[in-house]
Specification:
mainly alpha
């Protein structure tokens, strides 16, 4: 079960790297604006905020990838701690988005699904 949890954690981290790219590197591009449903003017007005927010997603991905790596190096306690920290924070951020902006439910569920599976499987495995 740990292996499946780590696969989902890796998918969650990869998704958050992609979110970082969109928020921090391509925020004002037509494709990213369409993904987030914002106009060119809105993107320009919020690009500094999005740049900063993108790095939060990158840091969560790094922590989660580090946890997967620690597990692969047979450092299970460190790996579990890092995966639960990174992926758990991804789930929490997705829930905040879902509760604060119900119109963005699809984005929130996309953001939290992989990490939620990873967290649940890892916790069950540790019980």
């Amino acid at each position: 079960m740990t292996a499946v949890a780590l696969v989902f954690a890796g998918l969650a981290a990869a998704l958050h790297v992609y979110i970082w790219v969109m928020e921090s590197l391509t925020w004002t591009s037509p494709r990213t604006r369409a993904t987030f449903g914002i106009t060119a003017e809105q993107a320009e007005a919020t690009k500094e905020m999005a740049y900063n927010q993108g790095f939060y997603n990158l840091f969560l991905a790094i922590v989660t990838f580090a946890g997967v790596g620690a597990h692969l190096a047979d450092e299970e306690t460190v790996g579990t701690t890092l995966v639960l920290t990174g992926a758990g924070s991804m789930v929490a951020a997705g829930l905040v988005l879902l509760l604060s902006s119900p119109d963005k439910a699809r984005a929130a569920i996309t953001q939290l699904a992989f990490p939620a599976v990873a967290v649940v499987l890892l916790v069950i495995d540790r019980l």
